[in-house]
Design goal:
Strand order of the largest sheet: 6-5-4-7-8
Largest sheet: 5 strands, mixed
Radius of gyration: 42 Å
Number of strands: 8
Helix content: 55-70%
Shape: flat
Structural class: alpha/beta
Length: about 525
């Protein structure tokens, strides 16, 4: 039933299985642009209500490269050169008064702006395109359904390669893989060094207590191979003078057992393998440092390259880390402890990976939580700068300024700097600080800026002690008042209880007397 009609469209009400559904139908002439993996199709809308369409023109792609270029332009919401020529030839040159139905809203806007074709987009167009999709094999005879499916698969593979090639997260993956490999190398290196110490310890057990550095230990084993050679060989390039002297003295009188030549050969090979692993780990650490400086200089300035790489690894990418709020950055790496505490309704952890940074390590125990919050906030800002900057070679000025601010906050908490004092940082350049802007405004107004009030650390400590003393006095006074009230309430309760007991006793005595008199009277009468 036709309910309403206007210039552009009519509303048709359809009753289907007891459900009333309203479907807009365009009354004006219209063409539809349909994108296929094999090319562009321009369709004439014969009857939208009955789903009848007619092929007006078809432009096939020459190869996969052309198809990839076209689909990339559609995803970016722009008009490719192929589509532009196709629409000009088959729509504009024919002076068609129709409107053009386009599925994508961005593409619809781009076609309207670049070519000047009036385009239509909306839910009704979406339904129309869905109907065309079911009939496209019958409408376009030039392309079979099998060819269409093969082209779609090839285009999907090429699109995946294109996305991977130009993915902004691809560079971050190098950092994540390098950090994961470094972690695995540390575990392997510790295992190898432990085996070398246990194996060579049978031959020279005293060496473990003298040479405590693991790398120096495997270097001595690698170069000397036997205990007897330690006494004669020069180890000045490995050990300091005192340690070398002590080691040689103990090696001469060691109580270790003798080993066979095969044993010495295998211990030496293991020591060489551990030394090569350590050498490669140092190269990998240098590579990671350079990559972090190039990709995330501000994050590196805040927390260092190792902690920064671990944060990126935990988040998944630098972009994902930039999207995380500061509270999430603070607890990255402590997820298990967090959920365990929430489940048991206990205190939640205050820090995760950022606990390894030197700034939190320098803070006192009672200030570590505050420092973790401050550092996480600045780290989150540094990650966002690194992620969203458009500079080819981003600088670390913002990261250095943030680190100076965090260090100043640490100094304030430790009491070495007063709250009124402000440390000079790189942010103190003209136009880079709110303090400088205030001073410039005051000077422009003809007034001088008020001097900052400096608070000594000693005065701050005395003020805190005075405050604690007053708090303790208030607590003691409150406790005394509570005790008095408790004693008074207890006394009143006791008096009330005694009064009730006496009243019960008197009542019982009176009843006893009455019963005794009554019994005496009955006895007398009897």
């Amino acid at each position: 039933t036709l309910l309403t009609t206007n210039d552009s469209k009519a509303t048709v009400s359809v009753l289907n299985w007891g459900v009333r559904r309203t479907t807009p139908v365009y009354t004006t002439a219209m063409h539809a642009l349909y994108e296929l993996p094999t090319g562009y199709a321009l369709l004439k809308v014969v009857d939208q209500e009955k789903g009848k369409f007619k092929l007006a023109a078809f432009k096939a792609f020459k190869d996969t490269k052309e198809a990839l270029e076209a689909i990339t332009a559609i995803l970016e919401g722009s008009v490719s050169s192929i589509l532009k020529k196709f629409l000009k030839k088959n729509f504009m040159d024919k002076n068609l008064p129709d409107k053009l139905a386009v599925f994508d809203s961005k593409l619809s806007k781009a076609v309207n702006e670049s070519i000047g074709i009036p385009c239509v987009h909306g839910d009704d167009v979406t339904e129309m395109m869905r109907t065309i999709g079911h009939q496209i094999a019958d409408i376009v005879d030039a392309v079979s359904e099998q060819t269409n499916n093969q082209a779609a698969l090839a285009l999907a593979h090429n699109m995946a390669r294109y996305k991977l090639k130009f993915s902004p997260d691809k560079i971050d993956m190098m950092i994540i893989q390098a950090f994961a490999l470094m972690d695995d190398l540390d575990k392997e290196l510790n295992t190898y060094i432990m085996r070398v110490k246990e194996w060579f310890g049978w031959h020279f057990p005293e060496m473990q207590k003298i040479v405590k550095d693991n790398i120096a230990y495997i270097k001595v084993v690698k170069s000397c191979k036997r205990r007897e050679a330690i006494v004669e060989q020069d180890l000045s390039d490995i050990l300091d003078e005192d340690t070398e002297k002590t080691l040689k003295e103990v090696a001469a009188v060691s109580m270790g057992s003798e080993l066979s030549d095969d044993d010495f050969h295998n211990v030496t090979l293991l020591a060489e393998e551990a030394f090569n692993l350590q050498d490669y780990r140092e190269q990998l650490g240098e590579y990671l440092r350079h990559r972090m400086q190039a990709i995330a200089p501000n994050l590196t300035a805040m927390v260092g390259e190792l902690v920064g790489a671990q944060l990126i690894s935990k988040a998944g990418s630098l972009l994902q880390l930039a999207k995380h709020p500061a509270s999430t950055v603070q607890l990255l790496g402590a997820e298990k402890a967090l959920f365990k505490a929430l489940k048991a309704k206990q205190k939640t952890p205050k820090y995760g990976v950022i606990f390894k940074t030197s700034l939190i390590g320098q803070a006192k125990k009672e200030h570590k939580g505050k420092m973790a919050r401050v550092l996480a906030a600045k780290t989150s800002l540094a990650a966002r700068i690194d992620s969203f900057t458009e500079d080819a070679a981003p600088s670390s000025e913002a990261g250095n300024a943030y680190r100076d601010a965090v260090e100043h906050r640490l100094a304030v908490l430790d009491g070495s700097v007063g709250y009124g004092m402000r440390k000079k940082t790189k942010a103190d350049k003209p136009g880079a600080s709110a303090y400088n802007r205030e001073e410039e405004q005051n000077e422009a107004a003809g007034g001088a800026a008020e001097p900052l009030t400096f608070i000594d650390g000693k005065d701050k400590k005395e003020k805190k002690e005075k405050k604690d003393k007053k708090r303790k006095a208030d607590e003691m006074e409150a406790d005394e008042e509570g005790e008095k009230k408790a004693k008074k309430a207890k006394k009143e309760k006791k008096e009330k209880k005694d009064k009730k007991r006496k009243a019960d006793e008197m009542e019982a005595d009176e009843e006893g007397e009455k019963k005794a008199k009554k019994a005496k009277k009955e006895k007398k009468e009897k």
